[in-house]
Amino acid sequence: MPLVNFTNLDFEDVKTTLKEYLKSNSNFTDYDFEGSNLSSILDVLAYNTYITSYNANMVANEVFIDTATLRENVIALARNIGYTPRSRKAATSSISFFVDTTNITPRPASLTLRRGTVATSSASFGGTGGAFCILDDITVPVINNIASFNNITIFEGTVLQKNFTYSDRNPQQKFILPNIGVDTDLIRVSVKNNSSSTASVKYSLQDNLFNINSESKVYFLQEVADERYEIFFGDGVFGQKLEDSNYITVNYLTSHGDSGNGFSQFAFNGRITYVRDGSEYVVSEGISLVTPDYSSRGGSSIEAVESVRKYAPKVYATQNRAVTADDYETLVPSKIYPDTESISVFGGEDLIPPQYGKVFISIKPKFGDFLPNLIKDNIKLKLKKYAVAGIVPEILDLKYLFIEISSRVYYNTNLAPSAADVSTTVSNNAAKYSDSTELNKYGARFKYSKFLKILDDSHESVTSNITVVKIRRDLRIVPNTIAEYQIGFGNQFYIKRTDGYNIKSSAFRVAGINENVYLGDIPNTDRSTGSLFFFTLPNVGSQNPSIVRTNVGRIDYVNGIITLNAINIIAGMEKDGQQTIEIEATPLSNDVVGLQDLYLQLDTSNSTFEMVSDEIASGLDPSASSYIVSSSYADGNLVRVGGPENVAITQTTTDSSITNTSFTGTTTTSGSTGGSTGGSTGGGSTPSGSGSGY
Known about the structure:
Structural class: alpha+beta
């Protein structure tokens, strides 16, 4: 009898194995397996074996979190290592309105906005209007016949309530919320002795067994099948145990998640009441229009299976403590601030100069570009129970490192409908790359060769491209304040000219100089450091600078750090409501990295893609006598366009001359003042002021 291969899972392989087994039996010598009824029997046996093998393989896959496909299995495996997936999150907004009680009788002393729905939006979710609610009653006084409801946080969704009665005769009793879309952060649990009791005790959510005892009034939460949640209580050792007939009330909110983001117009749809002489009155007049403070934001879907696979093992590895950078990078987005889009964590010992005893955390939120101070303080507060004593966490604001491209794209006119069509295709492909996951995150790397290939592959007519890479950071200044500034690029600078002018800046004004000035540099003999100076120009395109102040700062070409000595800068470019100086440099390597807290972005709005006819490839100039040469180096201008809005700047270009024009900067995101020093961070301070890069 031949050896049987038990590893075959394919139907035909199984059938062939069965045939070989039967042929080895003398009773089936010279038997026609294909032309007899035995062939059908073999098909049935092979099919049954195939199905059994497939099911066994799938069952084996569902045992491990890396290979499981069903959500309930992934959740169960994550639960075994103490990980609770993030629930759906309700979008929030803030509204204000007032009530004029002049014509209301009897006159109220105060008004109460009842919990539940308070506003609706004109937009909808699949035909259903978006409803926004509050979780608790809000009472305000009536002053001069006006009751003002200011800065009320509203949540997209519906407020629901579920009651349970605990029975100690049913040990298998479960408390499962029947609805999907529950925001677990907004669950409120209270317990009464029985259903007729008037006094209730609030229970708080606990996600571990630390710092709780037999009297701790806590509840635990876990996701079960069909994206629903189960609430359970302590056993008398860890957490207070419920008693027979205890009446449990659970108030919670169900939402549409990320579908609730972006609402900016609201109509009042709430219930306002007041009590006078023992009677309750409902207010239906005198209610003003609802004014939103900002569009609804922060809504998100339930944590995806892929995210659970990623974070569950990492959270388990942290063991509820933050020691390494990986611990912080895991705990912050998974347990502390789920709206994290990208995060970078590094120790103060990695900075130049080092700052020991600190860990720096930079977060790119999903919505917006920087974290409000309240959220930053909340993150630091929550980190205290995980952080090691003696280590101080610092939350850094988002700092952009912009990549600007100047590319001349050669194309074969015989294969192109028009230069405009090719240019559009090239620009669109560059924009797609700028939005890709390779960029737009901490620790990202701009891959020069890959980008060149993207341009070359944009259209069949493209024959080659000459692309120049520049890096830029925006220095936010504090006008009319003496301050020291430091801004880091995290990439080594290329020294093209030993006589200076390797970096370029937009125009700005400093105290004591009545003209627009620009920032220039001059390398030292070691070609690793240099000094900074201010100079003026008659116009942007001029090659005749006049140095007006020397030794105003220093430059570190190796680490990519620019430091300005204490100085009073009066004005710069107006960008997003901030006075800013754009600073540009050429990187030593065209592969640009987003070091530490630098968030890498390809700025297509400040990039150029010029189409050049390749007459060699087109056959118009086979001898290359009229070949158009493109430089592989940056343009020869000494400065960047832009300056204070109230100052006219003259610009000259190779194509045309623009005069008497006031240039303003394009919009960027805002950053923070102050901050740490180092190779990639911007910021600094003096006793008189502070400033930063963003």
